[in-house]
Amino acid sequence: MTLLSRRALLVAGAGALAACAAAPEQVPVATNVHPLTGLVDLDGAPAVMPRLPGAVTLIDFWASWCAPCRQAFPHLDQLYRTYRGDGLEMVAISVDDDPVAAKRFWASMRPRFPVAWDKVGAVRERFHVQNLPTTMLFDEDGMIVQRNEGFDRADHRVFEEHVHRLLR
Which residues of 65-94 are buried (b: 16+ CB within 10 A; e: fewer)? Predict the structure, then answer.
């Protein structure tokens, strides 16, 4: 299993911004395996995983060196703080090669949502992540409601509309 380097992610991202308008997808894994299997926290211990399927869940793939990730984090944090009491589950998954860089980024942003590290890249591959950030919203049945690559405020508002509709 090969980890994507920064360069590979950036090169792949140059031509792949319109991948979001496909038919609904289901969580990309066999039913007897949790789709987020393989995640650890930034210290290397097993990560606490959201119920997926089973809850409205937002997953965000990010890296410390990613400028659009820095733009997205405050918006994602506000979304999480607004809707976690209604049942929104979330995990932000670092794809950094170095967990120390991810920790520094996390400490500087101070979001309230949970973080995990995709140490070997298995989860990133399972979800076909090519660009950062990649953010996905799943309904309670594990169906992808929205998937975005990059960060755009208009797309974030659509995420919020979907979350509101699904939870309230």
Answer: bbebbbebbebbbebbeebeeeebbbbbbb
User: What's the predicted TM-score (pTM) here?
Assistant: 0.82
User: Which secondary-structure segment (H or E) carries 94?
Assistant: strand 89-94
Total Cβ atoms within 10 A of residue 117: 22
Residue labelled with tokens 């926290």: 41
Q: What is the DSSP letter of 29?
A: S
d(CA 84, CA 38): 24
Closest CA to 141 of 13, 53, 12, 57: 53
27: pLDDT strictly greater than 50: yes
How confident is the model over 35-46, as a mean pLDDT? 92
> What's 144's DSSP letter?
E
* Angle 97-98-103 from CA coordinates, rounded to 5°: 130
Distance CA 116, CA 45 (A): 10
